Amino acid sequence: VCVLNVLTALFVTHAKSLTKPDEKTKAIQETVKERNQEEKIRNLCFNIAQKGSKTISREDFEGYLESDQAHTSFALCGIDISEDFFDVVIALNSDAMSSLDEIDVETFVK
Q1: Do 105 and 54 meet the contact criterion of CB atoms below 8 Å apart?
Q2: Rounded to an integer, what is the distance from CA 104 to the centroid of its chain?
Q3: pTM over 0.70, yes/no
């Protein structure tokens, strides 16, 4: 009986180790997670932007923030919105921007 218990324990331990993802699988899962997150943010940005526009204006962004769903939508994307969020995004991407009143959706997502 003791031998069977030891063998069973070894079998269970080995089976558990086989179910853990390896480093490559973890990296793939993380990449997929990041891409899904980017897509959520991209969709949110296109909802904020005027129809057909590929940029978010300060006016559109601030108008969206007045809605009841704004903070929840950003929170679901993992983003905590502060009062000066748009200014921070513009400042972080100032080399890619020619305007201080709008930002390209793709730049916002990245």
Answers
A1: yes
A2: 17
A3: no
